[in-house]
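Deliverable D2.4 — example input (structure tokens):
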């Protein structure tokens, strides 16, 4: 597993590219807070997108996933300080970690929406 740090100047473009590649992939989102511990926010819902945009006091990153009733669930991260992508040794994106100025870490875990053999043509053995 390798971790790739995405520099703040590239957040908007990198997250747009990430979203285009992984749209529809199943995501789980967990929030790790020093005061509240680990809190699940989303479980195995299709990714709509992850967006970074400026706001009045810095940057806002939003993670959106589709619910079965056609609605969306959105998690907002105000004042992010770090964005890291975790990639397997085979080059497959597995997770993203986003840290905020408040010390909260948001972890987005990815699952392909199909069987592994339909994605890369080869089963791991």
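Example output (designed residues):
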């Amino acid at each position: 597993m390798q971790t790739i740090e995405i520099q703040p100047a590239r957040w908007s473009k990198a997250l747009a590219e990430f979203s285009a590649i992984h749209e529809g992939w199943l995501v789980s989102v967990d929030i790790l807070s020093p005061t509240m511990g680990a809190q699940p926010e989303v479980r195995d819902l299709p990714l709509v997108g992850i967006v970074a945009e400026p706001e009045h006091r810095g940057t806002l990153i939003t993670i959106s996933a589709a619910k079965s009733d056609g609605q969306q669930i959105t998690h907002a991260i105000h004042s992010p300080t770090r964005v890291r992508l975790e990639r397997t040794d085979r080059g497959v994106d597995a997770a993203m970690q986003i840290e905020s100025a408040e010390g909260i870490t948001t972890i987005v875990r990815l699952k392909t929406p199909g069987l592994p053999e339909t994605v890369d043509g080869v089963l791991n053995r």
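The CA atoms of residues 31 and 106 lie 5 Å apart.
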